[in-house]
Amino acid sequence: MPTRSSVAVDTVLEELIVGDIPLFIHPGWADRFPWLLQGTTGALPPEEPFDLALFGDHASSGVIERWDRIADASGFLRVVHSRQLHGCHVHVHGEGPPGFELAPPGDGHATRAPGVLLAVTVADCVPVFVVDPSRRAVALLHVGWRGAAAGVLERGLEVLRDQMASRIDEVHMHLGPAICESCYEVGAEVFEALDLPTPGERDDLDLRSVLVARARTAGVERDRISVSGHCTRCAGSPFFSHRRGDPQRQAAFLGVRP
Ligand SMILES: [Zn+2]
């Protein structure tokens, strides 16, 4: 049983904003893995929100144009995304036809095909980036507490190991902008679902620490794990937050450049 909130990692990163698109990237990975495109979009000012939510009741004008803008700026031939279900299905993508592909519902994507850009949307849930530099294989996961309980993190690692021949002790993992412990009070049932010691009443949950502990259990090396310094909900956050009441979503992107 993992302990809660007890796992620290050595690197807590402040991501950088780059380009015309508000993309917060992992600066260490940008230096070490220049063949990757990786990052999470930001919210931008309220009068011009950079919303990428394709599903749900809320329909934002300009959302398709924003996805197109990212596809064009990225130089990638193909962008893949899914309606997310807080489950554990991880899709594997080959080269495929160019354009935007809406894959069947799922919460993760993996590929080793250059030019295929993986995308998940988030607003408090954790975008989990996994990279195997030796095989140039990547996985991108959308992980809230339900997905964590369903095992989507472990499933993503299994897909890399079983279908991309990755060694789990060689992968690098980054947990992107997500809700922090002090902003995330949850009921005892959430602790129970995550196999954590159950508090008597509602308590704060550090979901990213839980995921770090799970990744360590699955064999990811501690010094290859990093966690964004950003909370999506804290005051002044440059990201959308579901708990703050934002209907919009940012998107995380990961792919091997063509
Ligand atoms: Zn916070």
Quickly describe the structure.
With 258 residues, the protein is α/β, with parallel strands linked by helices.
Features:
alpha/beta, CNF1/YfiH-like putative cysteine hydrolases, binds zinc ion, 6 helices, 258 residues
What's the pLDDT, averaged over the residues? 92
CATH topology: CNF1/YfiH-like putative cysteine hydrolases
**Given the helix and strand composition, which structural class is it?**
alpha/beta
User: By CATH's scheme, which homologous superfamily applies?
Assistant: CNF1/YfiH-like putative cysteine hydrolases
Provide the CATH architecture.
Answer: 4-Layer Sandwich
Rg (C-alpha, Å): 17 Å
Number of domains: 1
Largest sheet: 7 strands, mixed
How are strands sequenced across the largest beta sheet? 1-15-12-10-11-8-6
Report how far the terminal alpha carbons are from each other.
41 Å
Large-scale geometry: globular
Sheet-strand content, in percent, reads: 25-35%
Low-confidence stretches: 1-7
Count all strands and give the number.
16
Protein architecture, described:
- The chain has 258 residues and is α/β, with parallel strands linked by helices.
- It has a single domain, classed as CNF1/YfiH-like putative cysteine hydrolases.
- The chain has helices at residues 27-32, 63-74, 145-150, 152-164, 188-193, 207-218, and strands at 11-13, 16-18, 23-25, 36-41, 78-82, 90-93, 99-103, 108-111, 116-122, 126-132, 137-143, 172-175, 185-186, 203-204, 225-228, 250-256.
- The chain is globular and about 50 Å long.
- Zinc ion is lined by residues 180, 182-183, 231, 233-234.
